[in-house]
């Protein structure tokens, strides 16, 4: 069993499903006096797809933490985000793990195609990995994922990454608007009783089997560019 699954299992009783889109939230979960001097990072997310990103969640954490893992079943927190854009189940979990989570921030609104948003993370140097997740709209349960990447070591150094679109495997990809939230479809989000593929994989995109036109919404990976800069105030 991975550390990720151990942490999720131990804290399942804390979770409350939260449909909808979260407002901006930042929470430094760490006492810096226990972990060394604090470092600050700018995490800039650029949408290079034809989809809309729900408010993104960026997390600074230790290397042993993973928000998701391909080939495994999606956690309840990831399923809520991938199906409905809800970040609160994730942030509820993260706030209770100060030994492995340094900081997290949720964007204040959706990210349209071609737009960028910058989130600020501040954490001691041992929290030297960053992950980013957000739902892709309009999809049933696809999400942007950047998982456990290294942060810059030098001040004003920038590391650039590309992020793929993944399928959480928690909901069937019927492409019906009644099952897809967001401005394009205005449907429902979470589908707790609907069975998907059962495991996380790279998203197949939009195929046009329901209400969605691939000419408007399909994509080919990557879906985002993410730049992480260590700023010079630490």
Question: Briefly, what is this?
Answer:
The protein is an alpha+beta fold. The protein has helices at 3-10, 32-35, 76-84, 88-94, 214-217, and strands spanning 25-28, 38-47, 52-53, 57-61, 101-106, 116-124, 129-137, 142-150, 158-167, 201-202, 224-230. The chain has a single domain, classed as Immunoglobulin-like, CATH 2.60.40.
Description of the structure:
- By secondary structure, the chain is of the alpha+beta class.
- The protein has one domain: Immunoglobulin-like.
- The protein has five helices and eleven strands; from the N terminus they run αβαβββααββββββαβ.
- Strands 1, 2, 3, 4, 5, 6, 7, 8, 9, 10 and 11 form an eleven-stranded antiparallel sheet that branches.
- The N and C termini lie far apart (37 Å).
- Mean pLDDT is 85; it is low at 1-25.
Features:
234 residues; alpha+beta; Immunoglobulin-like; disordered N terminus; eleven-stranded antiparallel beta sheet
Q: What is the SS-derived class?
A: alpha+beta
Percent in strands: 25-35%
State the end-to-end CA separation. 37 Å
Q: What is the level 1 CATH name?
A: Mainly Beta
CATH superfamily: F-spondin domain
Helix-strand topology string = HEHEEEHHEEEEEEHE
Low-confidence stretches: 1-25
Radius of gyration: 17 Å
CATH topology: Immunoglobulin-like
Globally, the shape reads globular
User: Can you tell me the number of structural domains?
Assistant: 1
Counting DSSP E segments of at least 2 residues, the number of strands comes to 11
The CATH architecture assignment turns out to be: Sandwich
**Percentage of residues in helical conformation:** 10-25%
Instruction: Please tell me the overall pLDDT.
Output: 85
**Number of H/I helices:** 5
- Largest sheet at a glance? 11 strands, antiparallel
């Amino acid at each position: 069993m991975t550390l990720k699954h151990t942490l999720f299992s131990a804290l399942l009783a804390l979770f409350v499903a939260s449909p909808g889109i979260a407002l901006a939230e930042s929470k430094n979960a760490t006492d810096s006096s226990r972990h060394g001097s604090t470092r600050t990072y700018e995490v800039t997310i650029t949408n290079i797809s034809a989809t809309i990103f729900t408010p993104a969640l960026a997390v600074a954490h230790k290397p042993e933490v993973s928000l998701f893992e391909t080939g495994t079943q999606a956690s309840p927190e990831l399923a809520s985000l991938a199906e409905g854009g809800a970040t609160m189940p994730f942030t509820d979990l993260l706030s209770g793990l100060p030994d492995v989570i340094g900081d997290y921030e949720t964007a204040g609104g959706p990210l349209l195609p071609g737009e960028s948003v910058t989130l600020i993370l501040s954490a001691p140097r041992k929290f030297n990995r960053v992950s980013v997740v957000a739902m892709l709209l309009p999809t049933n349960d696809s999400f942007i994922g950047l998982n456990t990447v290294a942060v810059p070591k030098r001040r004003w150094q920038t590391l650039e990454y590309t992020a793929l679109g993944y399928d959480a495997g928690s909901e069937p990809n019927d492409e019906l608007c009644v099952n897809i939230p967001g401005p394009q479809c205005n449907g429902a989000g979470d589908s707790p009783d609907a069975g998907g593929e059962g495991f996380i994989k790279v998203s197949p995109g939009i195929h046009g089997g329901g209400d969605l036109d691939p000419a408007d919404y399909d994509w080919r990976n990557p879906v985002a560019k993410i730049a992480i800069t260590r700023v010079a105030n630490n």
